[in-house]
Gluconate dehydrogenase (Persicobacter diffluens), 483 residues
Amino acid sequence: MAIKTYDAVIIGSGAGGAPIANELVKAGKTVLVLEKGPLFQPQYLSESGVSDFRRDELYATGPEKRITLDVANKGESYYSSHVEPDLNDEPHIYRHGEEGAEIDKATLEGYTAQVVGGGTQLYGAVSLRFSEDDFKLKSYNENRGYNLVGDPNGDVDREVRDWPISYADMEPYYAKAEDKIGINGTHENQSKPFTSGSKYQKPLAPNPISEYAKKGMEAKGMEWYRTPLAVITEDHAPSSRKTGNVKTSYVNRYGDPMGYKSNTWVSLLAPIKDEDNFEIRCNCTVVQLKSRNTKVEEIVYFDESGDVKTVKGKVVVVACSAIESTRLLMLSADMDQSGFGKLVTQNGTNDLLGKYFLTHCFGGAEGIVPGRFDKSISLDSDYASDFAATRDFMKKNGLWAGAAIYNNTSDQALPISLARSHASQDIDTIWKGFDKNWPESNMKPGVGDQMSNWINGNFGNRLSVSFMANQVPLTRIIHTLYI
């Protein structure tokens, strides 16, 4: 039986793969998307009228599990949602520490989701543009005229690069994406020019707890704007979605059963799902890329029954997250060292695959504010500022790049996520809470009245502020296969 050939085969249906699929299908190309996870429908697309997503926070994050791998955090508890990989089955291992004394730990970090829509199903939906300087950080730092703080090895001057395109080149595409995907927010007081005009939908009224963040920004002289969020607040013509009561924390960090969060399934793939030149195959795990001469042509995968299948693509797009894309390329090279392996390494002259790993560079702070607020009635963020992205701020603080600041309105908005994520390594991760000593009371959580009293004293009164910044690209920050 002849192997079917498509104009494009796209591996992954998230933020990388779905926009390409949408554009190519509308251009008349035949497109196949291979997705490792299932298709979970929001209720407006479900034949039964009931969403496939689990709505209760207890079930959405699953039962407590224990790490069984032979790593430093073996035995620790973790909680993963029904669309995240199981750490014991598909581990991501984080190695850190001084050379010769490295520590390996299993981690949920990486924002990997195995579901149609990928990580866009689970993220908080904050959707910021890069600044003009973000595209030319090498040029900026060559002419900055001040010393950097905290760069003793000169990593910035050695490693930072300019993009080959500018903000002006990208601006029309930002506007197109914001309109096509469905984003609410305001553009006034953003440091980025909106030369194509604002395509944002009107933001919802902020949660009252965010007033503390707004007043804090104003007290510090920070001009604020409403945080751009990929959640529709008005009817959205490009995806034919209709709005309802969208203001709920179940839109954030959970799959959205209503379809208001603009994940790539509802915004980009569902609108083309019935086109004759489009096909998506779910529950399919790609295991190898095969090349002919200098071009990848064949994709080998396990289908939902576990059978081995092969397809061909005139163009093959690998877009299954930074971590998993690298793993697929490395596995393919290992399985065909004389062919694909040589192409990946350019006959042994290029060892860059897996190096210069970058991810979101986050930081922030959390505090307890007076009163109690219903944070379950909120989206992910209400107010943001580009104050820390200005050249004056960077110079004053000896920084090589700037950052956007925004408040996290919905963090720990639901009681179980509050407890599970307490003392976690990342506020976005349901992780470790029930398994750690709580320093405030030196007790184990989850014990009768102590648990109730702690939640009563902490629920609905926490507010965090985050920054999203640039990360210095370094060759020593790498992906590799963990054997």
Remarks:
- The longest helix spans residues 167-181.
- The CA atoms of residues 227 and 383 lie 5 Å apart.
- The longest strand covers residues 308-318.
